[in-house]
Amino acid sequence: MGMGAAEAVKEAGRLEAFGQGESVLKEPRYLEELEDRLHFYMEECDYLQGFQILCDLHNGFSGVGAKATELLQDEYSGRGIITWGLLPGPYSLGEPQKNIYRLLNTAFGLVHMSAHSSLVCPLSLGGSLGLRREPPVTFPHLHYDATLPFHCAAILATALDTVTVPYRLRSSPVSMVHLADMLNSSGKKVVTAAATIPFPLVPGQSLPDALVQLGGATAWTPLSACGDPSGTCFAQSVVLRGLDKACHTSRLAPGTRLPSPLHACDTGEDVLAQYLQQQQPGVRSSTHLLLAPCKVVPPYPCLFSPSLSRHGLLLDGPPLGAAVESIPVLGALCSSSTSGRALGDLARELGKLDVRRWASFMDAGVEQGDVEEALQELGSLAQCYQGGDGLAD
């Protein structure tokens, strides 16, 4: 968002409601500023894949993001638009208006952003998109405070920096549009993110050893506030970063009995692809290995278990006491029925809400008909994911 639009937010106070956010980019002076800046960058850009939008989903910035996606789609049709909607982790049951606004803003944001984006991915360390209070997610080797935005932002930034690798690297053949096309078939535009931070590798282990030890569904920590990640996966993009190339394949002596089919693979890409095929047969998967780890030097907060080495490997002896400087990370974007369940739950919560009790939200530029339309669109989005796991309506 341009500086002028930011000043408008300051003048109006906090953006609490979706309609307030939309109105910012309806004002000619801020709209013209945004368009001028976009045109400037377009002229300076050698190769434009598309646009990424990061915005809060739970407050009025969902309206800003929704309006921005609409403008970008109108102005740059055919370019990729990937929208990341950020949500806080735990919330207080003692703040009913804030929680209701969170529900309404999230619902409106997802509906409008998915209509104008190639993909939409909620990002949160919380467990629910709606009013259901769930504990924040946990990581075996991280000690973080879910009430501190600094901690939450660092973890989500680590995941975001990893899952966007496929279209950010010059060497990668995948573009934003190609990635979106793989994940958003049949209208499944809302995807989920997950990550293993850090990826658990013991010094001397190979990638096949670590994946066999890691197992299946427990490999991932969900990062999209969509609840239980079990369900039908339709397509996924998986990135593993930060492992030395010597660790990518098995280092067993010739003639040694192989512990698993993964140990027979010739490349790290083959190992990861074979692992995903074993865990989720028939799922369309795109895999990427990146040698560069994720840097976690200050100002990155100190969140790591003392059982990690300087490079984020799991120590099997006493802690060394050295500060962690980099970590390996396994991250994924997934199109799955988990999104459908979460969208359906959100629609049911919205349907139970008497919006007339929240006139201040409606006064910000939303009408009763808009709520009914959002409810219908949420239901339609959820239906896109109905499939082989018996997803409820």
Describe the structure.
The longest helix has 21 residues, at 96-116. This protein has 393 residues and is of the alpha/beta class. It has helices at 3-12, 18-24, 28-44, 61-75, 96-116, 149-163, 165-168, 176-183, 207-214, 268-279, 337-352, 359-362, 368-383, and strands at residues 50-56, 80-86, 119-123, 192-196, 221-222, 233-241, 284-290, 294-295, 326-327, 329-336. The protein is 39% helix and 14% strand. The protein has a domain at 178-335. It is globular. Keywords: Cytoplasm. This is Protein misato homolog 1 isoform X8.
Q: Could you give the topology of this structure?
A:
Elements (H helix, E strand, L loop, with lengths): L2 H10 L5 H7 L3 H17 L5 E7 L4 H15 L4 E7 L9 H21 L2 E5 L25 H15 L1 H4 L7 H8 L8 E5 L10 H8 L6 E2 L10 E9 L26 H12 L4 E7 L3 E2 L30 E2 L1 E8 H16 L6 H4 L5 H16 L10
Helix pairs in contact: 2-4, 4-5, 5-13, 9-10, 11-13
